[in-house]
Amino acid sequence: MPGGELAFILAAAAVFIAVVGGGFALTSGGDKRVMQRAAVVKGEGAAVRHGGAKLDQTAQKKRQIQDSLKEMEERQKQARKKSLTLRARIEQAGLEWSPTQFWIISGVLGFVGALGVLVAGQNILLVLAAGIVLGLGAPRWYLGMRRDARQKKFTEHFADALDIIVRGVKSGLPLSECLKVIARETPEPVGSEFAQLVEGISVGVDLEEGMRRMTTRMPLPELNFFATVLLIQQRTGGNLAEALGNLSGVLRARKMMREKIQALSSEAKASAFIIGSLPPGVLVIISLISPDYMGPMFTSATGQMMLLGGGLWMLMGILMMRGMINFKH
């Protein structure tokens, strides 16, 4: 075979081998890229499904929290209505009276007051006024004073009780043990209220019902915040220590703001006290200096009506000024 033909055959074979090898390489690389692309698409689909499931779980949790808040809001409205009853106000004042005992005490005070004014020979209107004031006003005033003082003490020590729960939860104690520590170590009335909560839980009352009873006995916004945080955490989970720590900071800030407002309104309170005490003070001084001059004011019907009208107007003015400087709500 001539050398030129042999060279041509070898060149053609080399070209064929090169074409076949290149096609095989391209085909195998394409399959690998196809497989890689399929894996990427499969991973993206799994990620999308995982993200969608995560979004659905977040939306479901958010919806559950909203439903819990609405349910608790309705229960708090019912609890506020129950807290306005006489029995609830007696419990809020920390007294062990029954409503019957309260009305008996009111009737005895009213009868004694009216009898004393009648024996003094005063007008029948003054007798009725004394009976109403001592029978209806004085017991309710005492009840409200005891109730406000007890709620003030509770507010002062409540943030410390929350700190006990925060430290206990962070150290690994269960919530029930933290509540027992508060019942033992915090001053009154925080200790007694949490003691009743712990006692109710120990006999089978669930936490939600126990907190509802507690907020009825102590209707304070701070306690409602605490009950809301506990019940939401119980239903949906979450970091209880962090939530209660934030709530403790908010309550301390509210306390500081309340004290600042009281300091700013102290001048108005002093003015109200001075202005309110001037008329009865002047009346007493003039009666001591010149009894004959002030005698007709107490003995005549006109003077007695003037005293009654002046007392009513003074009472209305004092209540109005008290409403103007009362920043409780």
What would you note in describing this structure?
With 329 residues, the chain is mainly alpha-helical. The chain is elongated. Helix 4 crosses helix 5 (175-185), helix 5 packs across helix 6 and helix 8 (221-236) packs antiparallel against helix 9. It contains 12 helices and no strands. It starts with a helix and ends with a helix. 88% of the residues lie in helices and 0% in strands.
Question: What Rg is obtained from the alpha carbons, in whole angstroms?
Answer: 40 Å
Query: Can you tell me the residue ranges where pLDDT is under 50 for at least 5 consecutive residues?
Result: 24-30
Individual helix count? 12
Integer average pLDDT: 76
Q: What's the main sheet like?
A: none
Distance between the ends: 117 Å
Task: Describe this protein with a few key phrases.
single chain, elongated
Task: Give a concise summary.
This protein has 329 residues and is mainly α. It is built from twelve helices and no strands.
Write the layout of secondary structure elements.
Layout: H1 3-82, H2 86-92, H3 99-119, H4 124-170, H5 175-185, H6 190-202, H7 207-217, H8 221-236, H9 240-264, H10 266-289, H11 291-299, H12 301-325
